[in-house]
Amino acid sequence: MKRLSNREVKNKIIEIMVHFDNFCRKHNLKFYLCAGTLLGAVRHNGFIPWDDDVDVCMSRPQYDKLIGLIKKDDVFDDHYRIITFENNTSHYPYVKVLDVNTVTDQKYTNEKGENSLWIDVFPFDGVSEDLEERKQLFAKSERARKTILLATAKPFAANGGIIKHIVKPFAVSGAKIIGIARANKKIIQISKSINYYDANLVGDPTWGEFDKEIMSKREFEVSVPISFEGRKFCTMSCWRQYLSSTYGSDFMKLPPKEKRVSHDVIAWEKQLN
Q: In Å, how far are 5, 19, 100, 192, 262 from 12, measured between CA atoms?
């Protein structure tokens, strides 16, 4: 296998985006750049220089349509695969789009069956207009999320002092006893508890932070074009408000150097005959 440079990793991830975009257009689906990918598009016209992953999102109705499609066939364009918990192919309650011609080795996680370069696709759901109700909703989801993160962690790879190294193997074992399936089902139930069509606000209770990605559904559903690494994709019309609520009103300002943390993805390309 050939070890990929950081630039080659990013090029492969862009290719995943392009092929997924083509797949979505073919099936009349719409996704948006979000989170750090959207920030990178606005601030850097592409990847945040020290970042190497891609996050996109879809409305829950669009996401559920995607899940229905991949239950029939989750491989498209030869070597791209769409995996998700609902299809029993992923540890997570959101979609990953993989380039199965690549192999990755991540520092702190052990995700068998998911060790390829990827992009994440998050469902955005209806959320309550009541702040306290939203807070409770996200808190419940976060508790289940911690179970998944621990259950997929490498037990003896801890980022911290001796206490973390001692405690982590026991925490990982406890999370595995609770079970990834139970935690995923809980998150999906929580996230879909408010009917998308009846809601005025949307957010990401599946995997997002409390009150950081809340926006008007009406504005969310209106798409606008945006450039990322020289290619055109879509995002929500309220992207500026979204970035302000997620990263602060000074989101165009670079963070201090100590906070520019890479995901440290190590990847290889399979050598095909």
A: 11, 11, 11, 33, 17
User: Which residues on neighbouring strands pair with residue 228, listed in sequence order?
Assistant: 231
**Phi–psi pair at 201, nearest 5 degrees:** -120, 150
Q: What is the DSSP letter of 101?
A: T
Question: Which backbone phi and psi does 221 adopt, to 5 degrees?
Answer: -75, -10
**Among 86, 150, 142, 154, residue whose Cα is nearest residue 115:** 154
Residues 204, 86: Cα–Cα separation, whole Å:
18
Angstrom distance (rounded) from CA 158 to CA 67: 34
Closest C-alpha to 118, from 92, 138, 155 = 92
For the whole prediction, is pTM greater than 0.85? yes
Contact between residue 10 and residue 262 where contact means Cβ atoms under 8 Å apart: no
- Contacts of residue 112, defined as CB under 8 A and 6 or more positions apart, other chains included, come to none
| Burial degree of 67 (CB within 10 A; 0-12, 13-18, 19+) | middle
Instruction: For residue range 24-60, list pLDDT tens digits in order.
Output: 999 999 999 999 999 999 999 999 999 988 999 999 9
